[in-house]
Fold this sequence. Notes:
By secondary structure, the chain is α/β, with parallel strands linked by helices.
Amino acid sequence: MKIITSIGELQQTVDNERISKRRIALVPTMGFLHDGHASLIRKARQETDVVITSIFVNPTQFAPNEDFSRYPRDLERDMMIAEEAGCDIIFAPTAEEMYPEGFKTSVKVGIVSEKFDGVFRPIHFEGVATVVLKLFLAAKPHRAYFGQKDYQQTLVIRKLVRDLNLDVQIDIVPTRREADGLAMSSRNVYLSEENRAHALKLFKALKTGEEVFLKGEKERVKINAAMRAVLQEIPDAVIDYAAAAKAADFDEPDFFKSGDDIVLLIAVRIGNTRLIDNMIIP
């Protein structure tokens, strides 16, 4: 496995691979890899010829009061996990490489970035869209792989690709969960034993929302209320949102139609840790 830290070297490397008619995959991550990330790399390994995993904690998607400085980092561990999963190239740039002195450009994606997490993390998706575009231009992938756990992010990236005519296929891989249902996340390391037990309520709330919907409830506020009631069982939790919306565009009608694909979205702060999760109901 090769380690690359400069954009120029990565671009030259992928240009040579493209000349050789090899299909390139990119798996963008912020590191501290877990089996959810590994599942993306494994899928990319099966479907393409060259697998690139980027490891970069992107400062532009963190607000000043968020956890950029304490976000978990362990490059050596990440390299072992990525190589075992089938990665060919690790792209691990510095912040100065990605954002050189005088950098002022940003990418803002419309409506899908303004709801839910866009309300509670107002600069987040602008930072995500900007860094993902830069990674696409550096790695020049044919396909890029993202996890469903960051569902709103996947819609933002799909819209970025569509609106800017980017020649890359976006593949969304289902959320990987622990045996007890907790969605795998790098931030789970922040949770105390007690808070981790409380965090299981997120998956329970999603399952409750799904059950209410499948039993025939189509009124959005009642589905939301069913999920919120479960989350309110968590001591001192701060519920940013527990919401049902149309999966394609985040439209929030008063009543869903029987043919609608919907997504249930949750964001909760437990102690000092903010967790998100979601479930798609086709």
